[in-house]
Design goal:
The complex is a heterodimer of chains A (115) and B (115). Chain A has 115 residues and is mainly beta. Chain A contains no helices and eleven strands. In chain A, strands 2, 4, 5, 6, 9, 10 and 11 form a seven-stranded mixed beta sheet that branches. Chain B has 115 residues and is an all-beta fold. Chain B has no helices and eleven strands. In chain B, strands 2, 4, 5, 9, 10 and 11 form a six-stranded mixed beta sheet that branches. Chain B starts with a strand and ends with a strand. The chains are: A mainly beta (115), B mainly beta (115). At the A-B interface, strand 4, strand 5 and strand 9 of A face strand 5 and strand 10 of B.
Chain lengths: 115, 115
């Protein structure tokens, strides 16, 4: 199947700093990528749809100024958590649709811990 | 928008028994229903999926059934093994194959297979 890679896999930062997470489609081009957030023992909650070359579409309740998404190329989308606070600590996972089917492939996930 | 409910939240079975997880969805336009298995701290892995033009699909010990009229679909695992223990998520989308194929996930089921 198609490969989606995320970096970093884990990050610890101080409250008030910003953290950038990268999501790459390694062997296919993805015009659309999706960012999910998963709190411990909970489901994957869709945060936003990242669109190559245009603005991201955010789900209701997700602050676009806090979670900045940039999709500057067909293989890379980035999520920046700005002015992170402890409540932003979570598992962030990106996904992208495969080149030939409707299946979504997920990155490894990035565990963010804000102290 | 789409809303997906999943039951039960936890399921414990003896090795060799069958396990059934059920999901309901709200958007009658949804046309793609994948099931993911997620082990602790790892990315979700697709285990089986079904499209709305099919009522049942089977892959070895795993099967999925879909009832479009009732808007529910189920995952069936037969001859369970300890390595089946994980969290299982159902999902739905009305945009299969489209550029905005965003998945909405159910709340998850923690399956524990007792040896």
């Amino acid at each position: 199947g198609a490969v989606v890679s995320q970096h970093p896999s884990w990050v610890i930062c101080k409250s008030g700093t910003s953290v950038k997470i990268e999501c790459r489609s390694l062997d296919f081009q993805a015009t659309t990528m999706f960012w999910y957030r998963q709190f411990p023992k909970q489901s994957l909650m869709l945060m936003a749809t990242s669109n190559e070359g245009s603005k991201a579409t955010y789900e209701q309740g997700v602050e676009k100024d806090k979670f900045l998404i940039n999709h500057a190329s067909l293989t890379l989308s980035t999520l920046t958590v700005t002015s992170a606070h402890p409540e932003d600590s979570s598992f962030y996972i990106c996904s992208a649709g495969g080149p030939n089917t409707g299946e979504l492939f997920f990155g490894e996930g990035s565990r963010l811990t804000v102290l | 928008g789409e809303n997906v409910e999943q039951h039960p939240s936890t399921l414990s079975v003896q090795e060799g028994d069958s396990a059934v997880i059920k999901c309901t969805y709200s958007d009658s336009a949804s046309n793609y229903f994948p099931w993911y298995k997620q082990e602790l701290g790892k990315r979700p892995q697709l285990i089986i999926d079904i499209r709305s033009n099919v009522g049942e699909k089977k892959d070895q010990r795993i099967a999925v059934t879909l009832n479009k009229t009732a808007k529910h679909f189920s995952l069936h695992i037969t001859e369970t093994q300890p390595e089946d223990s994980a969290v299982y998520f159902c999902a739905a989308t009305p945009n299969y194959g489209g550029a905005t194929n965003k998945l909405i996930f159910g709340t998850g089921t923690l399956l524990a297979v007792q040896p």
